[in-house]
Amino acid sequence: MDLDLAGRTALVTAASGGIGRGVAEALATAGVRVAISSRTRALLEEVAETLAASAGGRPKIVVGDVCAEGGPAAIAAEAASALGGRVDILVNNAGGARPITGEVDESYWEMSFTLNFMAARRLAERVIPAMKAARWGRIINISGALVAPKLNAAAPAKAALASWSRTLSIELGGFGITVNTIAPGRIDTAQIRKLHPTEQSRADFIKQNIPAGYFGEPCDIGHLVAFLASPLARYINGAAIPVDGGAVRRAL
Fold first, then answer.
1. What own/partner pairs with CB < 8 Å and gap ≥ 24 does 103-111 have?
2. d(CA 86, CA 89)
3. Using CA atoms, how far apart are residues 95 and 20, in angstroms rounded to an integer?
4. Please, are residues 13 and 66 in contact by the beta-carbon 8 Å criterion?
5. In 31-186, where does DSSP find H-type helix?
6. In 3D, which of 20, 5, 106, 104 has the Cα closest to residue 54?
7. Residue 59 carries which DSSP code?
8. Residues linked to residue 187 through DSSP beta bridges, in sequence order
9. In contact, 216 and 247? CB cutoff 8 Å
10. CA distance 62 to 44
11. pLDDT at 172
12. Residue 72 and residue 125: Cα distance in Å, rounded?
């Protein structure tokens, strides 16, 4: 299917592996000129080299830390410059679990909210003006479980991300900009392999929780991102879409 994305530009955060890499691959394959960002240049170079022959060309590399002071502003500015002056599609993929197993100080909570919510908001605020001027844009936020069975500083931050995304979609809809959220279930990445380190632990979890019978792959998120980014998805706005193989949307 032609997604009519050739020539569009995108910034994907946390794109050095896992879901971010899958998203970058799907967009580049669809003809999008992509800027990939993370803190590690060597890993970004590997991704860029792998995608060099894609329809969108070799991705631009933007090294930066979304949690650093001024980090989102610097990343957004460098990406826009590398992509010819604009970012049409922003994929906020940076995030991570922050379990609480004992006493933690305020900085632990603050860092979780910075990583899982504030960074996405700050990046969006940097690219929205150009999207408004063009009267076209896509903001896609990669979320997760909003309620956890055990204390985890990421869950309320993800809830904030989902709430903000929904309201932002209302604010920006009239400018031809859509804002949607994707909530991945268990996607087979290095992070999930740490959570389920053995074949048996993975098999047990799948049997108990995932009707599809397997963990998803990064491309399963990437394909949905590419569709939501396309003109074909122009009437999908403010949605929160689980991609979890039919699992009940809960934190485990």
1. 104/153, 108/153, 109/153, 111/67
2. 9
3. 11
4. yes
5. 41-50, 71-82, 106-113, 119-134, 154-172
6. 5
7. P
8. 216
9. no
10. 8
11. 98
12. 9
Q: What is the three-class DSSP state of 183?
A: strand
CA 37 – CA 234 distance, rounded (Å): 26
Give the model confidence (pLDDT) of 10-54 as tens digits.
999 999 999 999 999 999 999 999 999 999 999 999 999 999 999
85-114 tens-digit pLDDT: 999 999 999 998 787 888 889 999 999 999
Rounded Cα distance, 109 and 165, in Å: 21
In three-state secondary structure terms, 174 is helix
Confidence of residue 250 (pLDDT cuts 50, 70, 90): very low
Q: Does the model's pTM come out above 0.85? A: yes
* Count of CB atoms situated within 10 Å of the CB of 173: 13
- Reduced to 3 states (helix: H, G, I; strand: E, B; else coil), residue 116 is helix
Fold of 9-188+219-235: Rossmann fold (3.40.50)
Q: Where are any strands of DSSP class E within the chain? A: 9-12, 33-38, 60-63, 89-92, 137-142, 177-184, 240-243
C-beta of residue 16 within 8 angstroms of C-beta of residue 44: yes
The two tokens of residue 167 are 């309201």
Rounded Cα distance between 80 and 88, Å, is: 9
pLDDT in tens, 140-159: 999 987 877 788 888 999 99
Nearest CA-CA partner of 74 in 21, 37, 118, 23: 37
